[in-house]
């Protein structure tokens, strides 16, 4: 998933969230929240609170990639190059992967029953 698509999905969910505040004021509803939270706060709540995530229909899960997963990414990105991982200690492999900007995190975004994965 591109960062552009990720941002589009987040923006759409956040827009729906903000519209709920407009709807409250139109019908005279009252809530303890008088203004919508910022986009950044919204995303953090989505990541950390299941009930909030479910309410807005978007789920963001993040997990760290292990060294083997990162090596697989390196191998795909460098198809045809020979890398002898077997003679290297894990700390040296990690240094090499970091120098080559191999992602360290998998982000899974689920929205409208669509699951999208990206690396960071």
Please tell me about this protein's structure.
The protein has helices at 3-27, 39-48, 50-56, 67-77, 90-99; strands at 58-64, 105-111, 114-119. It is an alpha+beta fold and 120 residues long. It folds into two domains: 1-63 and 106-111, no CATH class; 66-102. A three-stranded antiparallel sheet has the order 1-2-3. A hairpin with a 2-residue loop joins strand 2 and strand 3. Helix 2 (39-48) crosses helix 3 (50-56). The protein starts with a helix and ends with a strand.
Task: Give me some keywords for this one.
120 residues; 2 domains; 3 strands; single chain; 3-stranded antiparallel sheet; alpha+beta
Strand order of the largest sheet: 1-2-3
Q: What pattern of helices and strands is seen along the backbone?
A: HHHEHHEE
* Low-confidence spans: none
The termini sit apart by: 10 Å
What is the domain total for the residues?
2
Mean pLDDT: 86
Largest sheet geometry: 3 strands, antiparallel
Tell me the quaternary state: single chain
Number of alpha- plus pi-helical segments: 5
Please indicate the percent range of residues in DSSP E strands (runs of 2 or more).
Answer: 15-25%
List the helices and strands and how they pair.
Blueprint: H1 3-27, H2 39-48, H3 50-56, E1 58-64, H4 67-77, H5 90-99, E2 105-111, E3 114-119
Antiparallel strand pairs: 1-2, 2-3
Helix pairs in contact: 2-3, 4-5
In short:
The chain is α+β, with helices and mostly antiparallel strands.
């Amino acid at each position: 998933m591109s960062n552009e698509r990720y941002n589009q999905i987040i923006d759409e969910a956040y827009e729906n969230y903000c519209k709920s505040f407009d709807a409250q004021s139109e019908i005279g509803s009252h809530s303890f929240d008088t203004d919508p939270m910022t986009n950044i706060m919204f995303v953090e709540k989505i990541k950390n609170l299941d009930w909030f995530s479910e309410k807005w229909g978007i789920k963001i899960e993040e997990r760290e990639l292990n060294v083997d997963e990162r090596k697989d990414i390196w191998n795909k990105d460098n198809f045809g190059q020979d890398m002898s991982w077997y003679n290297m200690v894990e700390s040296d492999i990690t240094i090499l992967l970091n120098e080559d900007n191999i992602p360290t995190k998998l982000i899974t975004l689920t929205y409208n029953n669509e699951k999208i994965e990206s690396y960071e």
